[in-house]
Amino acid sequence: MNEHPHVIEEESPMTDRAVARWAGMRTVVAILAGAVVLVLGGVWLANATDRARSVDEAPKTTAAQKSRAAGQESQVEVDDADSREVPGVRDCGVGEPVPEPTIITLDCSTAGRVASGIQWDRYTAAGADGSGVVQVSSGAAGAAAGKSFPARLRLFGPKEVDGLVAFTALEVTYTGATPKGEHTEVFPIA
């Protein structure tokens, strides 16, 4: 029937070897791809955990910020004359107003959102402008927990509160992604 039986016999083993070799290569590639996915996923999760830990470990009051910066554990005294000239910020409406804070708690009920790493471009008696990062902890309901969001910050509404001048509101304008979909939020801080 077959005029060239030896041709079929030679092609069959070659085809089987090529198929086996191809299947082996696909298996190796699949294993390498799975390992890369696991490594990248681990790095991503580790960074998310670090960001959430930063929010949890951040001092919750501006007085604590100042005492940590000075290497002290006690409450920092604020000179009344200085605080009357330039308004400060009372963290969650408590304590002495601190001028140019580097951390401001935005969600006082849960401390789930904190503006941190704040650098002020302008800080005057009328208002202040700067930039920082809004960190959302895992305890924040309805937001993207464990993430950080770059933002522009604006303090305004200076008023006398408990005999000292303090800013009463903070406007946060996100420069990229947002925790809840709103690009601008205003928080009462007095």
Explained architecture:
By secondary structure, the chain is α+β, with helices and mostly antiparallel strands. Helix content is 36%, strand content 28%. It has a six-stranded antiparallel beta sheet with strand order 1-2-3-4-5-6. It starts with a helix and ends with a strand. It is rod-shaped. It is built from three helices and six strands; from the N terminus they run αααββββββ. About 15% of the residues have low confidence.
In short:
The chain is α+β, with helices and mostly antiparallel strands. The chain contains three helices and six strands, in the order αααββββββ.
Number of helices: 3
Which class do the helix and strand fractions yield? alpha+beta
Q: Give a quick account of the main beta sheet: strands, pairing sense, barrel closure.
A: 6 strands, antiparallel
- Name the strands of the widest sheet in spatial order: 1-2-3-4-5-6
| Strand fraction | 25-35%
Distance from first to last alpha carbon? 98 Å
Low-pLDDT parts are 48-52, 59-68, 71-84
If you compute it from the alpha carbons, what radius of gyration comes out, rounded to the nearest whole angstrom? 29 Å
Q: How many strands?
A: 6
Instruction: Give the rounded overall mean pLDDT.
Output: 74
**What is the chain-wise order of helices and strands?**
HHHEEEEEE
